[in-house]
Amino acid sequence: MQTLPETLPALPEIINGLPNICGWETEVLSVVNHDAPVFLPKTNLHLEDINAGFAIALHMHQPTIPAGYDGGLISNLQYMFEHPGEGDNHNAGPFAYCYSRMGDFIPELVSQGCNPRVMLDYSGNLFWGLRQMGRSDIIDNLKRITCDRTYQPYVEWLGTMWSHAVIPSTPIADIKLQILAWQQHFAAIFGWEALARVKGFSPPEMHLPNHPDTFFAFVKALKECGYRWLLVQEHSVETISGQSLIHKHLPHRLIARNSQGETISITALIKTQGSDTKLVGQMQPYYEAKTLSKQQLGNVLIPPIVSQIGDGENGGVMMNEFPSAFNQAWWDMVNHGGGKTGVVGMCGTEYLELITDAGCQPEDYPTCQPVGQHYIWERVSADNVQPEAVENAILELKQTNPNFHMDGASWTNHISWVKGYENVLSPMYQLSSAFHENVNELLATQSPASLTKKSNYRNLLLHNLLLQTSCFRYWGQGTWTDYAREIFQRGEELLQANNW
Fold it and tell me: 3-class DSSP state for residue 74?
């Protein structure tokens, strides 16, 4: 495990009522940028004993909305508790329990001799909202399985965008700010050592950008922020020649190529099938893994991995059926190999570290790229990769291919995060542009470390990130788009006050 610098400060979680999302960027980057193994020194799994593995992740999120006392920013979960008669708000209590329950399940299973694994993906909004609501009991339960070394081998946190922003329509300049905000907030809650172990990334809504420049900026930001791999939806990527993936239970090398001809890559684990929470809720990945056997990767025979993510709280299956199915699967594994041989649960980073230790390198992985990109690269010659040629190819494709678009792909492809939401997107880009214009002017006279610690900067950054929350472009026109307009107006007022 990485040795942390001795000079790291203890971070406050809340500063003047706001979440700690900026000001210690240098320290965050010094902690996350390391190549030390995270799981390998502690794992009780041995690759030669395993036929196949599976990895499940639970995604948790509640948006921040301007609906508290006097229009204050509160968690939608708090609003649900305060208005139980509206819609499905009666689920507020069960939702809150779902956010906490892994802190009970993992210690119980370990005490019973099981060998459980789970990956957790919580938005920054949710972390802040729980603290705002005084639900320290939930956060403390999560700290138990995050900070107690007894349980660290069984739990992996995945990074994400702080305010659950879908990446294809997030202003490129804000992608890295979203990633860093989550990392700093996480460190403030769970500590620097816990942050150093966060090596996998979960894009909100599994929404992967397919515009070459947006995707390149995303992967570049991930790598600069210390991430080694990300989870991607099976149908959001394609082979380099434009085919569907063949080896979906093996890690892939995801290639990013921009309109300047630059190329970088990052490891991807492929989330299979659709978005139905039943797949996780009923532990389908375990039962699918039972049908698989070792596969050749490079010169090494390795166990394939079935990767799956679902909402951890949403729907009757997750609220009611998941606990018994989760427990039953681990008990079943104990009875068939002690939970350490045959078919086993794994965390994503654990799996990748194990196969790397066995001799697999990313160069051995099958390659893929965002869906639809092969159409572009068929039209742009290798010696003419420049912005104009790429944009001309995109325009031509949009005119000749009715199914072609640069909106990205997600696990909810029947819903667009762009069409019909110009009244949210336009203000979102406007606020982001004004934010960066102001920041660039201020950076001419002061250092980034000085500026980003200022309360006014933090407040404006918060509003900029909050406006990018996907929920304001999910529920249709009405209350939720009104929330977005209110956040935009407050951001505008903060800019006009100009009291930096």
Answer: strand
The domain containing residue 497 runs over which residues?
Answer: 420-500
Same domain, yes or no: 365 and 427: no
Write down which residue in 352, 369, 386 finishes a domain: 369
Q: pTM, whole model, 2 decimals?
A: 0.95
User: Contact 462/21 with Cβ under 8 angstroms?
Assistant: yes
Q: Is the pLDDT of residue 57 over 90?
A: yes
236 lies in some domain: yes
User: Domain check: are 432 and 350 in the same one?
Assistant: no
Q: pLDDT tens digits, residue range 455-469? A: 999 999 999 999 999
In a domain, 85, yes or no: yes
**Contact (CB, 8 A) for 58 and 121:** yes
Q: Which tens digits make up the pLDDT trace of 288-326? A: 999 999 999 999 999 999 999 999 998 888 899 999 999
